[in-house]
Amino acid sequence: MRLVVSQPMLLPWRGMFEMARLADRFVLYDDIQLPLGGGKGRGFITRVQIKTVRGSDWVSLPVARKGIGPQRTCDALFVDQDWREKHLGQIYQAYRKAPHRRWVEDSVIKPLYGLQTDSIADFCTASMRLVGKQLGIEFGEFASSKMGIAPNENQSERLLAYCRYFGADEYVTGLGAMNYIDYGLFEKAGVRILYMDYTLAPYPQLHGDFIPFVSAIDLLFNVGPEAPAQLLPRAVYWKDWPHFVDGRPARVPG
Q: Distance of CA 75 to CAs 9, 41, 53, 222, Å?
């Protein structure tokens, strides 16, 4: 049985949905610390890129941080609600000429931006579910904050606890886990680590040369109901990964 554990993310890119398609169980990892930094340190939980006539552009959620300090994703709130109109304007300008604009607006954008919530996690989770529905993917109802598994500063031990909870014998993850995964711990427990091998295959796209690392709404706007066929999920056992550095799997150069 394959398990995927991922933080809730705002309108994630195609690769996240490819990973979700491989999952027998999916856990929304919503009770770990929300990244505090700016730029790359902010991560991709509360922001995502869309493709515009000027290239890629960030769509970002404003998180209430003043006087709060570190906080879990499930506890984080919006600063205000003024960002909704800005988002809608950004999305409309980027995709107003997209062949499937009205379909995406009706099935994803309007339901999402009509959602009345102050919760970052709830909004991001809703965005994943709405896009996932159009891609034939169900995320289930497992949120780490409600599963009763005790926090653990050792990330590998905590992820292994989720594998044991479901009886998973394979854990599928993105490439960021290469920085911290304890392979010996998982191997000893009989759980195989599989890394996503993203195809980044091009599809018809507005605004010039193909850009793969944008929100999956770009795929929906451009391809429409045929979008599920553009998901090409593949995962590789860590020992079979094509590039190693100092005895550990590493990102393939280039």
A: 14, 19, 36, 35
User: How far is the first Cα of the chain from the last one, in angstroms, to the nearest whole number?
Assistant: 32
Q: Check: pTM over 0.85? Answer yes or no.
A: yes
* Tokens linked to 128: 């994943």
Rounded to 5°, the CA angle 28-34-39 comes to: 120
Query: Phi/psi class of residue 77: alpha, beta or left (left: φ > 0; alpha: ψ in -120 to 50)?
Result: beta
- Nearest-angstrom CA–CA distance, 64 and 44: 17
Domain boundaries, the chain: 9-19+33-148+206-233
**Could you report the per-residue pLDDT of 36-86, keeping only the tens digit for each?**
655 555 678 999 999 999 999 999 999 998 767 889 999 999 988 889 999
CA distance 136 to 45: 22
